[in-house]
Specification:
Radius of gyration: 24 Å
CATH class of the largest domain: Alpha Beta
Shape: globular
Number of domains: 3
Structural class: alpha/beta
Strand content: 15-25%
CATH architecture of the largest domain: 3-Layer(aba) Sandwich
Oligomer: single chain
CATH topology of the largest domain: Alpha-D-Glucose-1,6-Bisphosphate, Chain A, domain 3
Number of helices: 18
């Protein structure tokens, strides 16, 4: 903890009054958490708890971030440098959007500012549509209500990849003190023409592109119902509009159509969590709907609950992705050979389906920016973008968006469920058909929450232990291959080869039976994630094998954690 930095904040005469009150109410431990480091960029940009301090989201950390990003934008030497800014419904999102606009416009950068809460994928779309130099979205996605965040994009609507983010980070490090960054008043910048609002026409242009991904837009829909919840987030208006215009009968979850920054009706506004569907499933039972679809607050992730034998069953991202891939591979025609993009922690099932249909597969590091980067590389080649997804409920079908897009997924999931209902099948039936053909895949994710400075140290200690352990057997698990993405090496115990992906603090183990597990610190939350994937010829065998691997890995992790405690 920097006592000098704390005193500087306490003595700054122009400190925001709300931040001042909170600052003086903090305990020593809370001060340490707020000041022990600077808020950093991860896989999803900069994200943190709201409040005073260098390790918190506030107008001063936002100013420094924007100063660094502004320097990057100006370094591109565009004739008219410009940035599109969008924001979600969270606490201070509008404030941070305005503050971002003020900093950048004061640097001479033209700002296109959305005048209402906006889905993250629409921001990605708007960057290219408006021929901007970059984009910003103020969001913390599905994090708890006391969080907010800041994501930055390049001129193709893709989140900045590490090489570019490093430039921004260096510019932030070289930036003046946050209290010394001078910004003009918002109204003055509007009068000067440096800030202008995005026209609502962009909504229609974006939705027209979303609707174009439909394979069978004239599908018979009169016997099919969707329950839709935006979980208090940004997809509400456009999601309902799109379903209506595409002819779907849908029931919105009224309580969750309210843009509530406290997400009052859910414990967590994350479609990966079963409890987020409680209200939607109640609506579905009342209306006898076929499917529930939930999008997260910034509308980049989507989750499904499917009616099957009278009950609503939740699908994971590793199940939904292969269903969509199988449907597209069988029903959509491409003018050029297609390429599927997934990540190193995504189940191999989708890739297996794609390869059977002659579709190339490219795996990237975790983070949709890497998929967006690969989509850009396909431009003007003899290959076409087929589909991009990751296990954490993110999908993109049309690459007019270079980020995950829940509006596209909302449409395609509705279409696929309706298509199979017309054939007398549920999505669970389809999934079991896929398992029969390709093997029974079981995938698990364990979140190990280790918050604050102590947690960060423990995460590093755990990863260092696994990194340095050269054993071929770990806790009874027989290791066939180990991939270390920080050291960028792949070893099978006999030979070592180089990995071509960028450096990342991730370790992946392949076991002798075809299973694998991955250790990875979250880029946006104070936790370490353990991903596990298993495939056998039998459902029960796969479930049991998953439990065995999970138990063995967690015992190792607990043992390492205990060494420090």
């Amino acid at each position: 903890m920097s006592q000098k930095e704390i005193e500087k904040w306490k003595n700054f005469p122009l400190l925001d009054e709300d931040l001042r009150k909170e600052l003086f109410s903090l305990s020593d431990d809370e001060l340490n958490e707020a000041f022990y480091t600077d808020l950093t960029f991860g896989t999803g940009g900069m994200r943190g708890i709201l409040g005073p301090g260098t390790n918190r989201m506030n107008i001063y950390t936002i100013r420094r971030a924007n100063y660094g990003y502004g320097k990057y934008i100006l370094s591109l030497k565009k004739e008219v440098p410009s940035v599109v800014i969008a924001y979600d419904c969270r606490h201070n999102s509008l404030l941070f959007a305005h503050e971002s606009a003020r900093v950048l416009a004061s640097m001479g950068i033209k700002i296109h500012l959305f005048g209402k809460i906006t889905p993250t994928p629409e921001l990605s779309f708007a960057v290219r549509q408006l021929k901007a130099s970059g984009g910003i979205v103020i969001t913390a996605s599905h994090n708890p209500p006391n969080y907010n965040g800041y994501k930055i994009y390049d001129d193709s609507g893709c989140q900045l990849v590490p090489d570019l983010a490093d430039i921004v980070i260096q510019e932030i490090n070289n930036a003046p003190d946050a209290f010394d960054i001078k910004v003009d008043e918002y109204d003055n910048l509007v009068k000067k023409g440096l800030i202008e609002m995005v026209d609502d026409q962009i909504d229609t242009e974006y939705l027209d592109c979303v609707k174009s991904i439909s394979v069978y837009p004239e599908l018979k829909k009169d016997n099919f119902k969707v329950v839709f919840t935006p979980l208090h987030g940004t997809s509400n208006v456009l999601g309902q509009r799109m379903l209506r215009e595409m002819g779907y009968t849908f029931i919105p979850v009224i309580e969750q159509t309210i843009a509530d920054p406290n997400f009052s009706t859910v414990a967590s506004p994350n479609p990966e969590n079963a409890s987020a569907f409680d209200l939607a499933i109640k609506y579905a039972k009342d209306s006898e709907a076929d499917i529930c679809i939930a999008t997260d607050p910034d509308a980049d992730r989507v989750g499904l609950a499917v009616l099957d034998k009278g009950e609503y069953v939740l699908l994971t991202g590793n199940q939904t992705g292969p269903i969509l891939i199988d449907y597209l591979a069988k029903n959509r025609k491409l003018s050029k050979p297609g390429v599927l993009f997934n990540t190193i922690v995504t189940s191999s099932l989708g890739a297996k389906i794609a390869k059977k249909h002659g579709i190339d597969v490219v795996s990237t590091l975790t983070g949709f920016k890497f998929i967006g980067e690969q989509a850009r590389l396909l431009e003007n080649t003899d290959k076409a973008f087929f589909f991009g997804y990751e296990e954490s409920y993110g999908y993109v079908i049309g690459d007019f968006v270079r980020d995950k897009d829940s509006l596209q997924a909302l449409l395609l999931c509705s279409e696929v469920a309706c298509y199979y209902k017309n054939k007398g099948k549920t999505l669970l039936d389809v999934l079991h058909d896929i398992y029969q053909e390709y093997g029974y895949y079981e995938d698990g994710l364990v979140n190990i929450n280790l918050s604050g400075a102590t947690g960060a140290r423990k995460i590093e200690m755990i990863l260092d232990h696994f990194r340095n352990d050269q054993s071929q057997i770990l806790n009874g698990l027989k290791i066939s291959v180990k991939e270390d993405y920080l050291l960028q090496v792949r070893t099978d115990g006999k030979t070592t080869t180089s990995l071509k992906l960028p450096k990342s603090n991730v370790i992946k183990y392949f076991l002798d039976d075809g299973s694998w597990f991955v250790l990875r610190p979250s880029g946006t939350e104070p936790k370490m994630k353990v991903y596990i994937s298993v495939v056998t010829s039998d459902e029960n065998k796969s479930k049991n094998r998953l439990l065995e691997i999970k138990k063995a890995v967690l015992e190792m992790v607990d043992e390492i954690k205990g060494e420090e405690e």
